[in-house]
Each structure stands twice: as structure tokens, then as C-alpha cells.
Amino acid sequence: MPASTAESSKAAPAGAPGFTPELQMANMLGLCEAQMESALQESDRAVDALVQAFTCLVDTTRSVNALTDQLPVEFRETVAVGLNQQVEAISKQMASAVVAFQFYDKLTQRLGHVRYSLSTLALFVCDRSQAASPDQWRRLMNTLRRLYRTEEEREIFQAMMDGISSEQELGGATSTHKAVKPGEIELF
To answer: The whole model's pTM is what?
Structure first.
């Protein structure tokens, strides 16, 4: 939430001057948005450390491959075979790590969409003229609908707009969404 809105909407006790349900709702939505931002920043730092470690593993694997090519012919059949098997195992683990990074990227994109939605909603509900207008609500929903890039996000958004509870949608999500097979990479 922008700083000017956050400053102007400080929590006030019920009945205090400046208290409105809209401001309280905006403050709570701002809190949710700030918590998600903090969690995303922490996870980004952890992923950065993993990326550095992953890069070192790739470099080390390449070095081991280069060293096996330099072995004398009599050792290549025994030592090189074992080393190549180990390098292949490491390569498979790195491929699994790439898939995990892709899912992390999808997660951060989706959380970014949620953060934007919360921030936009907080600003929207503070403007009573907008919040009281069905046309403005439709405009807000259309704006938020355009955020969602994956089929899963669009399906969840539509289900929620159709009045399905979040528990019902989450319960059905596992059966309606395409599962990714092991070793298969889904692009987001």
C-alpha cells in the first residue's frame, strides 16, 4: 500500500474520531500485503543463496567432466565410468532443482498478484463513492481479472466470482488441474 495511504489510515479505536470500517478494512488489507511482501523478500534471499550454490554445482560438474577427459586411457574405463555416473546423478538432481525454481517463480508471481489485489482493494474501499457503485466494483474486478496469467489463477478467480467458497475451490483444485508428471517441466 502506498505510504501516503498507510499514513492517513492509521488504526483508530472504534468510536474514535477518524474511525471508519473502511479504514479499518484497508489497514487489515495493508497488513496482509506487508506480511506477504516481507515473506517474499525473505524467500528471495534464500533462493538467491540457492542459485549461487546451484551455479557452483554446475561449474564443479563441468570441471569433473573435463578432468575425466584428461585421464590416461587405462583409467578411463574404470575411473571415468564411476565419475560419469556420479556426474549424471548430480545432473538429474540439478534438473529437479530447476523444476523447483520454476514452481517458486510461479508462487512469487501469484503472491505478487495477491499483493496487488489487496493493495488495490484497500484503496478502493476507502473511497466510499467507488465502494458504493456496482459499476466501479465491476471495473475493479475486470482490472484484477487481467492480472492472472496462469489457467489455474483464472479458474480460481472465476470460481470465486461465481460464488464458490475458497474451501470448495481448493478442494476441487487438486482434481481439476493438470498434474505435472515427474521429469516434465511446465512453463508458466
So the answer is: 0.61
